[in-house]
Structure formats: C-alpha cells, structure tokens
Amino acid sequence: MVVEQEHKKTKRFALFLATRDSEFVKKAYGGYFNVFISTFGDEGEQWDLFRVVDGDFPDDKDLDSYDGFIISGSPHDAFADADWIVKLCSLCQKLDEMEKKVLGICFGHQIITRVKGGKIGRARRGPDMGLRTITISKDTEKLGLYFGDEVPASLAIVKCHQDEVLELPDSATVLASSEVCQVEMFSIGDHLLCIQGHPEYNKEILFEIVDRVLNMKLMEQEFADKAKSTMEAAEPDKDLWQKLCKNFLKGQI
C-alpha cells in the first residue's frame, strides 16, 4: 500500500518504515509517517509510505521515479535475517547501484552498513538512550556543503539504540563520533548518509519509548531515569539536523 501526501508534485520521496506505530504516536501525531514529514518534508513534495516491517515494499520499476529515500529506526536488529530485513537489504543494494539518495536513521544507518560490507552488532558500551552531544569531524568538506555555512563543532541528538556500527564499510567516511559510539554519522559517496541518532525525535517521543520499554521490564528504573534526565535542561539541535538532512536529500545548498 502507498500512502501519499497530496501536494503539487515537484519532488518525490519515500519512507521505509521499519517500526510499527505506538498507540501514543498514533494519537499524538497520526503515526510516525507524519513525524518524518514534519521533520524532512517541504510544501509541494510527494511523500510515500512503505511499511517495510510489514512486508510493504515499492515495485522495482518505480524506484527511479523517486528523488530520495529514508530508512527509519526499528526495534529489530539490522543483522537479523527476517524475510523483510533481507528484502530491505536487497532493495538498498539496488538503490546504491542506482546512486539514489538514501538517508539511514539508527536501524537504517546499520542496514546500509550491512549492505556495504561493514559490521554491525551489540553496542560495545551497551544500550544508549537519551540526549547526547556528538562531535562533528573537522576535516570533511562535504559537511560544509550540507550545512551551507559554518559547520558546528558538535550537535545534540536523541539516541535510542542497543546496536551500533562495529566496522565501517571500506568506502565510508566518518562524519561524527562520540565518547560512547565511534560511528555516529558517516557517508558513502554523495548518495548515502547514515545517522545513528534520531533527528526526528523530540522529548515526548523519547520519554514515551523509555516508559514503554521500562513497563516491558527491558530496562532498569535507574537507566530510564538517567535517559530522561538528559533532556531536563537541554534540547536536540533539530533545526541544524533538518538543514543537514534536507540539504543532503534535496540538494538545497
């Protein structure tokens, strides 16, 4: 099924949603699709939704009609071999061969690593949830193009993951790192950009995920409290993340 946002068609993008909508996200935003549209979309664009986690994929013959793609985060492991994950990897391989723009977020970041021959697995320092400050590489001209002006030395972003990139693909360039994760962001060529954190998340989305995981007894109360405390007096640099991701996807430089 394709869900379209009705606008005058100038550019066309697709979201590969690798997670199911929580009841909170449905009620507050109408689903994760709307969260992504509000973060990365612009007036006059067409955005299509493919719930890849449920086996919903575009036809190969339609891929060329898209200007760019986003792969979302997911509670599933990017190194797993569920049918839909294997199919998503195959699709990403085709998009890479076509040199289509693909923005990988969290799980998507790891899927692209897998497709390009890198290694992913459980995070060396354990799960990470909360607002984190990541350090931006100083010697990367590409980021100057994406930001359009001065490249920030660091950026705050919401993190929510238990896996990470353990070994980069040979063709990758690291764009950001942190004390807890060596590969926070990387690029391959001009068509793949991968981010371990969540540019689309805000405080209430993070808190709801923390509460849900806590209620499922998959984390300790102390870990949950620490995750929430990171956003008591700070916010993610959402405007700068939007600028970076939109310039990458749309060439708005």
Automatic annotation (TrEMBL):
<dbReference type="InterPro" id="IPR017926">
    <property type="entry name" value="GATASE"/>
</dbReference>
<dbReference type="GO" id="GO:0008233">
    <property type="term" value="F:peptidase activity"/>
</dbReference>
<keyword id="KW-0645">Protease</keyword>
<dbReference type="InterPro" id="IPR044992">
    <property type="entry name" value="ChyE-like"/>
</dbReference>
<comment type="pathway">
    <text>Secondary metabolite biosynthesis.</text>
</comment>
<dbReference type="Pfam" id="PF00117">
    <property type="entry name" value="GATase"/>
</dbReference>
<dbReference type="GO" id="GO:0019760">
    <property type="term" value="P:glucosinolate metabolic process"/>
</dbReference>
<dbReference type="GO" id="GO:0006508">
    <property type="term" value="P:proteolysis"/>
</dbReference>
<keyword id="KW-0963">Cytoplasm</keyword>
<dbReference type="InterPro" id="IPR029062">
    <property type="entry name" value="Class_I_gatase-like"/>
</dbReference>
<keyword id="KW-0378">Hydrolase</keyword>
<dbReference type="GO" id="GO:0005829">
    <property type="term" value="C:cytosol"/>
</dbReference>
<feature type="domain" description="Glutamine amidotransferase">
    <location>
        <begin position="54"/>
        <end position="202"/>
    </location>
</feature>
<protein>
    <recommendedName>
        <fullName>Glutamine amidotransferase domain-containing protein</fullName>
    </recommendedName>
</protein>
<comment type="similarity">
    <text>Belongs to the peptidase C26 family.</text>
</comment>
